[in-house]
Write a structure and sequence with these properties.
The protein is built from 14 helices and no strands. The relative contact order is 0.09.
């Protein structure tokens, strides 16, 4: 499977440059330009109109944005976007410039920078699930529960209606769409767990929703180690020890900071479960459980690749790509 972080970066870059029209000037502007003796408006001439989101106000501004559009390297695109913001702070395209910078920051794991520019982009592009989902994930881990819950909920709603960007390989788009949904479900499950741990009464039934969100995360991204670890915790608190054992085993075989701790939980749960009468775990040991889970994870990852290919074929067959990128005039 492709590296999900790099795939996110590549797709977000393509969505960034595809989100603005090739020629954002109105037909009237085009006609005026065509009839002009000089053939073009002066580069520094500002169009006689107020700032409009998604539309440049001069030819120079449009040319600068075109340079960003035509750049395929995320870091170079971010540098051009920073220059664009300084030169054209009142442009109608500033949100897309922030989106380009956020994309580059995400690709190199610069979380603070990603948050700052993603939030700036969302001020004028509030319905952008490819920003809302990772932000929800980040906020849930930093215990900003209200924002994580809001963004995660909005991301899931928007992903249901999301259309494939023109020119993107369908299989990559489907993989990333499921990845964003997994992030959103994780953020919601993680947030519920955080509220539950701080509740003085801690009603067990409140964890059922968290368990479902975490299971959805692992269904969409079987290699989500944090979701597996949190599911192990939540399931053990609801006394579903079989689910907890296998969830911790999954977290143990996914590389990450939770792996070693998860192995300890597997051993402790197994010690308790193997002594239960007629236990399914009596004839095995913790090491075998983890080895079996590693094989199960590999099988699920292969199955996801096949699922993406199948869904992509169904999508392309049912909805051939005919729509142009949305006009932002």
């Amino acid at each position: 499977m492709k590296n999900p972080r790099l795939l996110f970066s590549a797709l977000l870059l393509a969505m960034t440059v595809a989100a603005t029209p090739a020629n954002p000037f109105s037909p009237q502007d085009q006609k005026q330009s065509e009839g002009d003796q000089a053939g073009q408006l002066a580069e520094d001439q500002v169009l006689d109109e107020a700032r409009t989101v998604g539309k440049p106000r001069s030819r120079a501004e449009f040319s600068a944005w075109q340079e960003i559009r035509e750049t395929v390297d995320a870091r170079k695109q971010a540098r051009l976007a920073e220059r664009f913001l300084k030169k054209f702070p009142d442009s109608g395209l500033t949100a897309w410039a922030h989106l380009a910078i956020a994309n580059a920051a995400f690709s190199r794991n610069d979380i603070d920078r990603f948050i700052r520019h993603a939030e700036e982009a969302l001020l004028e592009l509030p319905d952008t699930p490819e920003l809302l989902a990772p932000l929800a994930n980040i906020y849930s881990e930093s215990k900003r529960i209200d924002r994580a819950t809001d963004y995660g909920t909005r991301a899931l709603q928007l992903l249901d209606q999301m259309e494939k960007p023109m020119g993107q390989p369908t299989v990559d788009w489907i993989a990333m769409k499921q990845g964003w949904a997994a992030d959103a479900h994780y953020a919601l499950g993680r947030s519920i767990l955080e509220v539950w741990t701080k509740s003085p009464n801690k009603p067990v039934k409140d964890l059922e929703e968290a368990v479902e969100h975490l299971k959805q995360t692992l269904k969409m991204n079987p290699g989500h180690g944090y979701a597996a670890f949190r599911l192990g915790f939540a399931a053990s608190r609801t006394h579903d020890y079989d689910t907890a054992l296998l969830a911790y085993a999954r977290a143990a075989v996914v590389e990450g900071p939770a792996a070693e701790s998860a192995k300890g939980h597997v051993r402790r749960l197994h010690d308790g479960l193997r002594n239960v009468p007629n236990s399914r775990w009596a004839s095995t040991d913790a090491g075998n459980i983890i080895r079996d889970e590693r094989e199960r994870l590999a099988a699920e990852m292969d199955a996801k690749e096949q699922e993406y290919s199948r869904l992509a074929a169904e999508y392309d067959s049912a909805a051939p790509e005919v729509a142009a990128p949305p006009s932002l005039q």
